[in-house]
Amino acid sequence: MKIDKAYIPLLFFSCVAIGIVIGGLLNFPTSTASLSKNDYKSKLNKLINFIDNEYVDDVQTDSIVDLTVTNILANLDPHSVYVPSSEQVAVAESMKGDFVGIGVNFYTYNDTIAVIKPIANGPAERAGILEGDRILYADNFKLFGKEIKNEILYSKLKGEKDSEVTLTIYRKSEKRRFKIKVRRDVIPIKSVDVAIMLNKNTGYIKINRFAETTGQEFRKALSNLKIEGVNSLIIDLRENGGGFMEMAVEVADELLKDKELIVFTKNKKGNIDKTFATQKGDFETGKVAILIDENSASASEILAGAIQDNDRGLVFGRRSFGKGLVQREMNFDDGSAVRLTIARYYTPSGRSIQKPYVKGDSEEYYQESEDRFESGELYEKDKIKIADSLKFKTKKGRTVYGGGGITPDIFVPLEVAHGEESLEYILQTGIVGQFVFEQLDKNRDQYKGMSFLHFLTKIDSDLYVNSFEKFLAKSGLEMSLTKNKALVSRYITAEFSRQLFGEDEYYQIVLKEDKMIKKVLEKQ
């Protein structure tokens, strides 16, 4: 598969665990070795071997190779990268869409592994593990009271399918310690977070990345919404950093008519490869809206561009990241990998939405995203810098622009006040979940047996805002929440809903006052 991605977004409460050998290392005499003028390809091999054999001190040759390869790729484009084996394992599992483990969402709380929530129908839940349980031992390996590297921790909880691990659990609510056997199983890592109806006609699907299973997940989600009568669909690609180009194509194919162009790529030789929709689309006539933001990239931009250029629907939000480079991954025996840019992709109208970059200067490239805060374009559409020379036409003749991301048809600014942009992103990270877990942990029994509707009448999240501000300060994030109290309160309520009930309930709360959702519903 071609991999087209800017970065892999962090999975909320994920428990997923997350050297290159250049030819053969050549032997040569300990005397001075000569190098022919044009022997560039063997130069690096000979140098590494020379250091390995002759350098006065012991050196980790593999780390030198890693550094060398990283530096070589740094002189290309910002998305040609070397991925060490320690990182590649987690990325590969995330993009594969599943892993084998015990199935819990957790975090380290006071030097102890605390279970936030067992994955529904997973091994841990089937074995009887509950929210709030502490995992003290995996077999005889101690998991508390010391810092444990993630790769070691995950290796103790993950394993072969159907293998067993004996966990020592402390259940705070019962003040008891006991052992429990868990049989490991395949745990799905969803790329489609949720699919719900917002009203009797409008469905909502949230895609967090484009993994190997995204096409299948999307079709299942769409099928369920069709049963509920959906005729208007919102696809949320905010914070979606991309993934497999083929999966974006599969989703687009469900929405576009036969033979409509989805995307095309062009390689260094000028060869063009076009991808068209097929006859099999399951939602080719209903209304479609795509939600994007400044962190929507690559595969997300392929989907948004295809919908926009074919006039299939409108794009709402803020200008996307601007990543139009296609990578191919080359894996190595030690588990590491190189992702090399092999082509550029173009939207159906012919737009390259890759933002400008200078080879060897990735810092400036990524700084462009930071500059959007200062320029004001996250609050005002008129502040978006668009080159008139990069105008293109959609199928029906509407003007769209290339040269740096997908510019939305309907602009929607950030919800937070200018100068407090970081808060909006903080609210979507695990820190809100950690705060809510600690609040629940004080007296989890008060919510036992409570229905979701009853919970909504009881929760007063405004009371938690001041506590959350102190929690942020304790974590090193000093900020006032006064101007954004309603937004913070909404996310706290949503997170309580997630931990007590589930993802659907989380999104019911968080989307209720969402500005982009409101804008879409206004336009229908």
UniProtKB/TrEMBL annotation:
Belongs to the peptidase S41A family. Residues 98-173 form the PDZ domain. Keywords: Hydrolase, Membrane, Protease, Serine protease, Transmembrane, Transmembrane helix. It comes from the Bacteria. The chain crosses the membrane at residues 7-28. It comes from Flavobacterium aquatile LMG 4008 = ATCC 11947. It holds the Pfam family Peptidase_S41. GO terms for molecular function: endopeptidase activity; serine-type peptidase activity. InterPro entries: ClpP/crotonase-like_dom_sf, PDZ, PDZ_sf, Peptidase_S41A, Tail-specific_protease. This is Peptidase S41. Residues 175-365 form the Tail specific protease domain. One of its GO terms (cellular component) is outer membrane-bounded periplasmic space. One of its GO terms (biological process) is signal transduction.
